[in-house]
Request: fold
Amino acid sequence: MSPMSTQRRYAQRVARFQRVAKRRALFPSTASPQEVSCLVSESITSSVTNDEPGTEHVMELRDKVYELTEKCQNMELEINLLRKERDIYKQKLDISRVDMDSLHMNDAQSEKKLKYYTGVPSIALFMWIFNLVCAYFTDRRAMSMENQLLLTLMKLRHGLQNSDLAYRFGASSSTVSDIINECIPTLAQTLKFFIRWPSKAILLSNMPMKFKRTFGNCRVIIDCTAFFVERPYNLRSQAQTWSSYKHHHTLKALIGITPYGAVSFVSKVWGGCISDKEITQKSGFYRMI
Reply:
Protein backbone atom coordinates (compact mmCIF):
# COMPACT_ATOMS: atom_id res chain seq x y z
CA MET A 1 0.00 0.00 0.00
CA SER A 2 1.44 3.37 -1.00
CA PRO A 3 2.24 6.02 1.65
CA MET A 4 -0.27 8.38 0.00
CA SER A 5 -3.20 5.96 0.44
CA THR A 6 -2.15 5.31 4.06
CA GLN A 7 -2.19 9.03 4.85
CA ARG A 8 -5.58 9.38 3.13
CA ARG A 9 -7.06 6.54 5.20
CA TYR A 10 -5.64 8.08 8.37
CA ALA A 11 -7.09 11.49 7.50
CA GLN A 12 -10.51 9.92 6.80
CA ARG A 13 -10.44 8.08 10.15
CA VAL A 14 -9.50 11.24 12.02
CA ALA A 15 -12.27 13.18 10.28
CA ARG A 16 -14.80 10.43 11.11
CA PHE A 17 -13.69 10.47 14.75
CA GLN A 18 -14.04 14.25 14.88
CA ARG A 19 -17.58 14.05 13.47
CA VAL A 20 -18.56 11.43 16.05
CA ALA A 21 -17.00 13.41 18.89
CA LYS A 22 -18.78 16.57 17.74
CA ARG A 23 -22.11 14.75 17.51
CA ARG A 24 -21.64 13.26 20.98
CA ALA A 25 -20.73 16.70 22.30
CA LEU A 26 -23.95 18.19 20.91
CA PHE A 27 -25.99 15.35 22.45
CA PRO A 28 -24.20 14.50 25.70
CA SER A 29 -27.02 12.29 26.96
CA THR A 30 -26.18 9.75 24.26
CA ALA A 31 -22.65 9.15 25.54
CA SER A 32 -21.04 8.87 28.93
CA PRO A 33 -17.40 9.80 29.66
CA GLN A 34 -16.54 6.09 29.64
CA GLU A 35 -18.00 5.66 26.12
CA VAL A 36 -16.08 8.67 24.82
CA SER A 37 -12.90 7.30 26.40
CA CYS A 38 -13.45 3.87 24.78
CA LEU A 39 -14.14 5.46 21.39
CA VAL A 40 -10.94 7.48 21.55
CA SER A 41 -8.95 4.50 22.79
CA GLU A 42 -10.18 2.28 19.94
CA SER A 43 -9.28 4.88 17.34
CA ILE A 44 -5.89 5.48 18.92
CA THR A 45 -5.13 1.77 19.29
CA SER A 46 -6.06 1.16 15.63
CA SER A 47 -3.75 3.95 14.57
CA VAL A 48 -0.88 2.65 16.68
CA THR A 49 -1.37 -0.94 15.47
CA ASN A 50 -1.24 0.08 11.79
CA ASP A 51 1.89 2.15 12.41
CA GLU A 52 0.23 5.20 10.97
CA PRO A 53 1.92 8.63 11.14
CA GLY A 54 1.81 10.72 14.30
CA THR A 55 1.99 7.79 16.76
CA GLU A 56 3.66 9.78 19.53
CA HIS A 57 1.12 12.57 19.18
CA VAL A 58 -1.70 10.04 19.34
CA MET A 59 -0.25 8.52 22.50
CA GLU A 60 -0.15 11.95 24.11
CA LEU A 61 -3.78 12.48 23.16
CA ARG A 62 -4.74 9.13 24.70
CA ASP A 63 -3.05 10.04 27.99
CA LYS A 64 -4.80 13.38 27.96
CA VAL A 65 -8.16 11.71 27.30
CA TYR A 66 -7.65 9.38 30.27
CA GLU A 67 -6.72 12.34 32.45
CA LEU A 68 -9.77 14.37 31.37
CA THR A 69 -12.05 11.37 31.86
CA GLU A 70 -10.82 10.96 35.42
CA LYS A 71 -11.33 14.65 36.07
CA CYS A 72 -14.88 14.45 34.71
CA GLN A 73 -15.69 11.56 37.02
CA ASN A 74 -14.29 13.42 40.03
CA MET A 75 -16.23 16.54 39.11
CA GLU A 76 -19.41 14.49 38.72
CA LEU A 77 -18.95 13.09 42.23
CA GLU A 78 -18.32 16.57 43.60
CA ILE A 79 -21.44 17.92 41.89
CA ASN A 80 -23.56 15.17 43.41
CA LEU A 81 -22.19 15.97 46.88
CA LEU A 82 -22.90 19.67 46.37
CA ARG A 83 -26.46 18.89 45.27
CA LYS A 84 -27.06 16.85 48.43
CA GLU A 85 -25.60 19.65 50.55
CA ARG A 86 -27.83 22.17 48.75
CA ASP A 87 -30.93 20.09 49.46
CA ILE A 88 -30.02 19.83 53.16
CA TYR A 89 -29.54 23.59 53.51
CA LYS A 90 -32.71 24.26 51.54
CA GLN A 91 -34.65 22.05 53.93
CA LYS A 92 -33.16 23.84 56.94
CA LEU A 93 -33.99 27.19 55.36
CA ASP A 94 -37.60 26.16 54.79
CA ILE A 95 -37.90 25.17 58.45
CA SER A 96 -36.42 28.46 59.68
CA ARG A 97 -38.49 30.67 57.37
CA VAL A 98 -41.21 32.79 58.94
CA ASP A 99 -43.66 33.87 56.27
CA MET A 100 -47.11 32.81 55.20
CA ASP A 101 -45.78 30.62 52.39
CA SER A 102 -44.05 28.43 54.98
CA LEU A 103 -46.98 28.55 57.41
CA HIS A 104 -49.69 27.53 54.94
CA MET A 105 -48.74 23.85 55.29
CA ASN A 106 -51.33 23.57 58.10
CA ASP A 107 -49.28 21.12 60.14
CA ALA A 108 -48.67 21.12 63.88
CA GLN A 109 -45.27 22.75 63.50
CA SER A 110 -46.73 25.66 61.50
CA GLU A 111 -49.48 26.23 64.07
CA LYS A 112 -46.93 26.18 66.88
CA LYS A 113 -44.64 28.60 65.05
CA LEU A 114 -47.52 30.98 64.28
CA LYS A 115 -48.66 31.02 67.90
CA TYR A 116 -45.14 31.72 69.13
CA TYR A 117 -44.49 34.62 66.76
CA THR A 118 -47.94 36.27 66.77
CA GLY A 119 -49.99 34.87 69.65
CA VAL A 120 -52.66 33.75 67.17
CA PRO A 121 -53.37 30.08 67.97
CA SER A 122 -54.34 28.86 64.49
CA ILE A 123 -53.92 29.66 60.82
CA ALA A 124 -57.71 29.67 60.40
CA LEU A 125 -58.03 32.50 62.95
CA PHE A 126 -55.16 34.37 61.33
CA MET A 127 -56.88 34.20 57.93
CA TRP A 128 -60.16 35.34 59.53
CA ILE A 129 -58.41 38.43 60.92
CA PHE A 130 -56.69 38.95 57.57
CA ASN A 131 -60.03 38.93 55.73
CA LEU A 132 -61.28 41.65 58.07
CA VAL A 133 -58.36 44.02 57.52
CA CYS A 134 -56.98 43.20 54.06
CA ALA A 135 -59.25 45.73 52.34
CA TYR A 136 -57.42 48.54 54.18
CA PHE A 137 -53.90 47.32 53.44
CA THR A 138 -51.71 48.60 50.61
CA ASP A 139 -50.80 46.05 47.96
CA ARG A 140 -47.01 46.23 47.81
CA ARG A 141 -44.69 44.61 45.31
CA ALA A 142 -42.07 44.02 48.00
CA MET A 143 -44.38 42.02 50.29
CA SER A 144 -47.77 40.32 50.15
CA MET A 145 -50.60 41.60 52.36
CA GLU A 146 -50.59 38.37 54.38
CA ASN A 147 -46.93 38.85 55.21
CA GLN A 148 -47.61 42.49 56.09
CA LEU A 149 -50.10 41.36 58.73
CA LEU A 150 -47.71 38.67 59.95
CA LEU A 151 -44.85 41.18 60.21
CA THR A 152 -47.00 43.63 62.18
CA LEU A 153 -48.19 40.98 64.64
CA MET A 154 -44.60 39.83 65.16
CA LYS A 155 -43.62 43.43 65.90
CA LEU A 156 -46.44 43.78 68.44
CA ARG A 157 -45.78 40.38 70.01
CA HIS A 158 -42.00 40.46 70.43
CA GLY A 159 -40.99 44.06 69.77
CA LEU A 160 -38.49 43.02 67.10
CA GLN A 161 -36.39 45.76 65.57
CA ASN A 162 -37.20 46.90 62.05
CA SER A 163 -33.79 45.76 60.79
CA ASP A 164 -34.44 42.26 62.13
CA LEU A 165 -37.84 42.10 60.43
CA ALA A 166 -36.31 43.46 57.23
CA TYR A 167 -33.79 40.57 57.13
CA ARG A 168 -36.49 38.00 57.93
CA PHE A 169 -38.87 39.14 55.19
CA GLY A 170 -36.32 40.25 52.60
CA ALA A 171 -37.37 43.91 52.58
CA SER A 172 -35.76 47.24 53.43
CA SER A 173 -36.03 48.83 56.86
CA SER A 174 -37.94 51.77 55.41
CA THR A 175 -40.50 49.40 53.88
CA VAL A 176 -40.93 47.64 57.23
CA SER A 177 -41.42 51.01 58.95
CA ASP A 178 -44.05 52.06 56.40
CA ILE A 179 -45.92 48.77 56.81
CA ILE A 180 -45.98 49.00 60.61
CA ASN A 181 -47.06 52.65 60.61
CA GLU A 182 -49.92 51.78 58.26
CA CYS A 183 -51.04 48.44 59.72
CA ILE A 184 -51.15 49.24 63.44
CA PRO A 185 -53.78 52.05 63.15
CA THR A 186 -55.74 49.85 60.74
CA LEU A 187 -55.75 46.95 63.18
CA ALA A 188 -56.71 49.24 66.06
CA GLN A 189 -59.63 50.70 64.16
CA THR A 190 -60.87 47.48 62.58
CA LEU A 191 -60.55 45.18 65.58
CA LYS A 192 -61.71 47.54 68.33
CA PHE A 193 -65.09 45.76 68.46
CA PHE A 194 -63.27 42.92 70.29
CA ILE A 195 -62.86 45.22 73.32
CA ARG A 196 -66.21 44.93 75.10
CA TRP A 197 -67.28 45.36 78.70
CA PRO A 198 -69.02 42.08 79.61
CA SER A 199 -72.16 41.79 81.70
CA LYS A 200 -71.98 40.27 85.13
CA ALA A 201 -73.74 37.09 83.97
CA ILE A 202 -71.22 36.53 81.14
CA LEU A 203 -68.39 37.29 83.53
CA LEU A 204 -69.52 34.74 86.13
CA SER A 205 -70.25 32.04 83.57
CA ASN A 206 -66.71 32.25 82.12
CA MET A 207 -64.77 32.88 85.34
CA PRO A 208 -62.23 30.15 86.19
CA MET A 209 -63.28 28.06 89.18
CA LYS A 210 -60.12 28.72 91.18
CA PHE A 211 -60.50 32.45 90.57
CA LYS A 212 -64.20 32.35 91.51
CA ARG A 213 -63.48 30.77 94.91
CA THR A 214 -61.01 33.47 95.94
CA PHE A 215 -62.10 36.56 93.97
CA GLY A 216 -65.74 35.87 93.18
CA ASN A 217 -66.71 39.58 93.03
CA CYS A 218 -63.87 40.63 90.72
CA ARG A 219 -65.05 42.36 87.55
CA VAL A 220 -61.81 43.58 86.00
CA ILE A 221 -58.05 43.62 86.53
CA ILE A 222 -56.44 46.94 85.63
CA ASP A 223 -52.91 48.09 85.00
CA CYS A 224 -51.38 51.33 83.74
CA THR A 225 -48.96 50.20 81.03
CA ALA A 226 -46.10 52.45 79.90
CA PHE A 227 -44.55 52.37 76.42
CA PHE A 228 -41.10 53.75 75.74
CA VAL A 229 -40.91 56.40 73.00
CA GLU A 230 -38.15 58.48 71.49
CA ARG A 231 -37.54 61.92 72.92
CA PRO A 232 -39.81 64.43 71.17
CA TYR A 233 -38.31 67.53 69.59
CA ASN A 234 -40.92 69.80 71.15
CA LEU A 235 -39.94 70.90 74.67
CA ARG A 236 -43.52 70.80 75.94
CA SER A 237 -43.95 67.26 74.63
CA GLN A 238 -40.69 66.28 76.31
CA ALA A 239 -42.04 67.45 79.65
CA GLN A 240 -45.38 65.67 79.13
CA THR A 241 -43.82 62.33 78.17
CA TRP A 242 -41.00 62.24 80.73
CA SER A 243 -41.53 59.58 83.42
CA SER A 244 -39.61 60.10 86.66
CA TYR A 245 -40.35 56.48 87.57
CA LYS A 246 -39.06 54.95 84.32
CA HIS A 247 -36.41 57.66 83.78
CA HIS A 248 -37.42 57.70 80.14
CA HIS A 249 -39.90 59.31 77.78
CA THR A 250 -43.03 57.17 77.83
CA LEU A 251 -46.72 57.03 76.93
CA LYS A 252 -49.22 55.45 79.31
CA ALA A 253 -52.60 53.79 78.92
CA LEU A 254 -54.95 52.10 81.35
CA ILE A 255 -55.76 48.53 80.29
CA GLY A 256 -58.36 46.29 81.91
CA ILE A 257 -58.83 42.55 81.43
CA THR A 258 -61.49 40.18 82.69
CA PRO A 259 -60.70 37.28 85.04
CA TYR A 260 -60.83 34.92 82.04
CA GLY A 261 -58.24 36.96 80.13
CA ALA A 262 -60.22 39.02 77.60
CA VAL A 263 -59.36 42.71 77.17
CA SER A 264 -62.39 44.69 78.31
CA PHE A 265 -61.13 48.27 78.62
CA VAL A 266 -58.45 50.40 76.95
CA SER A 267 -58.15 54.10 77.72
CA LYS A 268 -56.74 56.87 75.59
CA VAL A 269 -52.97 57.32 75.64
CA TRP A 270 -51.49 59.87 78.01
CA GLY A 271 -48.02 61.32 78.54
CA GLY A 272 -45.72 59.50 80.94
CA CYS A 273 -45.74 62.32 83.49
CA ILE A 274 -49.33 61.51 84.58
CA SER A 275 -49.84 59.31 87.64
CA ASP A 276 -51.73 56.02 87.62
CA LYS A 277 -54.41 57.45 89.91
CA GLU A 278 -54.96 60.47 87.70
CA ILE A 279 -55.20 58.47 84.49
CA THR A 280 -57.72 56.11 86.13
CA GLN A 281 -59.90 59.08 87.11
CA LYS A 282 -59.69 60.84 83.75
CA SER A 283 -60.09 57.75 81.54
CA GLY A 284 -63.75 57.17 82.41
CA PHE A 285 -63.02 53.82 83.95
CA TYR A 286 -65.14 54.49 87.04
CA ARG A 287 -68.22 54.97 84.88
CA MET A 288 -67.89 51.38 83.63
CA ILE A 289 -68.07 49.80 87.08
The CA atoms of residues 141 and 171 lie 10 Å apart. The chain has three domains: 3-93, 100-193, 195-282.
